[in-house]
Every structure is written in C-alpha cells, then in structure tokens.
C-alpha cells in the first residue's frame, strides 16, 4: 500500500452527498429504500435519504475490514439482517463509503438480488480494483482514504 492518502473532510463529504444525489436524480432513478452498509455507509445513506426525499432507510452490517488495509478472508453479514419481505419488489439504493475490493458491495447485492425489483449502488469513492462498478460515484482514487468519521483512533479500545 502506498503512503498516498485521500483526505475527506466533513464539508467535502456534504458536497459529495449532494453531488451523488444529483446523479441519481439526473439518472431518473427513484429508489423506494436506501440500504446503508454499516458502518461506512451510514452517513451517506442518511444524507441521500434526505436529499432524495426517501424516508424508508435500512441498514445491513457487513464486516470485512479489520484495520488499515487488513481484511477478513471473506465479508460476513452480521445480524440483524433486513427482513427480505420488507425489501420485496422495491427499488433499492445501496449506500457505502467506498468500493475498494467491491466484495462487501457484492455480498449486499447478492443478498438483495432475489428480493428487490432493482438495486443500484452509490459510493463516495471507487477504487479501480473493485469487482462492483457502482452506478453513482463521487470520486475515483487508488489512495487509502481518511474519512472524517474514522481518521482518528477510537476513544475506546
């Protein structure tokens, strides 16, 4: 991993949310539900919900990263999971902070595949090695990203 870093500030994040939402609007996509991938996609999902007037928000928790450039072998969906009955026939916008390897997004797309009418992905950042090509992307980078919510060490171990 290179030492190069992409620094995202809170003001830049606010801009990214509005610009991603505008991409969705310009594309004519009208999601019924925003499905945020916890933890990184929570702020984006909330912001997109407001910007797109979507009140139906849900969360799916997927663990993959364990540290800086350290991952589990495979992403794991953690309970509780959204009830697939609640997703049935909906147009879903999946929100996450970054499509790095894309494997987290892939597992969420697979979870939705047999239940939703359509699912599209929105991310703040996309990396070239991602196996998933999000429909809506704010920036593309190869660098490690310092997000404003995770750039400092946790207060508790």
TrEMBL record:
UniProt entry tagged with the keyword Transferase? yes
Know the name of this protein?
A: Phosphoribosyltransferase
* UniProt domain Phosphoribosyltransferase: residue ranges: 6-150
Query: Keywords of this protein's UniProt record, alphabetized?
Result: Glycosyltransferase, Transferase
State the Gene Ontology terms under molecular function: glycosyltransferase activity
Q: Which domain of life is it from?
A: Bacteria
**What does the organism's lineage look like at the top?**
Bacteria, Bacillati, Actinomycetota, Actinomycetes, Propionibacteriales
Lipid biosynthesis in keyword set: no
What organism is this sequence from? Answer: Nocardioides luti
